[in-house]
Amino acid sequence: MAKNPFKYMETLNTVHSPMDPKQIEAHYGHYIRPKISTMDKKVVIEAAIPGWQPIWWWRARGVENLPPGANGGTTCIQEQADAIIECVKAGAAVIHTHPRDPSDGMNRIHAPKLLGEIMDQAFNEVDFITAHHTWGWDYTKSWETDYVSYPKELLKLGKGNKYVQCGMVMSMPGYSQGRAIHSHRSIIEGVKFFEKNCIKPMYSVEAFAFEEMKTTLFDTGISNWKPYWIALQLGKHLDQFTYQDPWSYRLTINCMEMVKRNMPDEDIFLGLHPAGRNWLPMAVIGLLYGAQVIRVGLEDQFYLYPHKDDIPTKASENVELLVKIIKDLGREVATVKEAREMTGVKLIKKD
What we know:
Helices cover 33% and strands 11% of the residues. By secondary structure, it is α/β, with parallel strands linked by helices. The mean pLDDT is 90.
């Protein structure tokens, strides 16, 4: 046994001393690693107001002041326009709306003049990209959706694409009789009409349908307006995975990765339409994984948080919440002008 077992301790430094730079870099490798670009793109916020749910749906849950215009009457149009203006001023660049009629406060699927009146009131104060429903149906003619008739009316009414700058192309199937079918034929017809008339297709895609949409529209060159605006649908349309953890988080990453692995990065403008109780965690995960557009608003998010029963007090509250999160994560919110540059959407006016 050594005579002085503590002699070795005397040779050790008891205070921090300057380290050689090479030792620091070896110990903390991130100092010499390149920047990680996953979150470097600006985020476009889409606001979905006032939603399609009937008035009684809100009233049955004790909500009297929402959604905008739901009580009908003389202030119905202005309430909806004001909600849009508030959302844009809060940070939204894209607006999706189901116009509500003053006669009863109920939403209308096919009402171009009503939609135009609401949009004009909002356009008097702010600019934004319109991204409403652009398909309808007539069961006397076909079970298939019609992606041409309604946009054609909006183009004529707006003397250009003012009311229909972006058009939703759905992958949601008909789950039962009584629902129109988004068939290959109707989608192909719609996309051709959209791109010919300066309407940017927004591909509203469920996870199970991405490959089908890719092979039908992108690989064939039927759709060639790049970047492709792909909005992954999570938490609605009979979704069975996002109402519990951890499936919602895994599904968000898996769905985004599925698109990223199968499409060149420069060809896609990728984002999420998160809905349901877990919309907020899914939105955050999407932001962390580089989502370029997130939809929030009254249509798909009734509760603000998954673990509380807090609801928004106004349509712009969800936008304000998302803006704060985006900035806290070190990302930037895109302006309307920047959103147009990112997507290629231009406002076209005709004489």
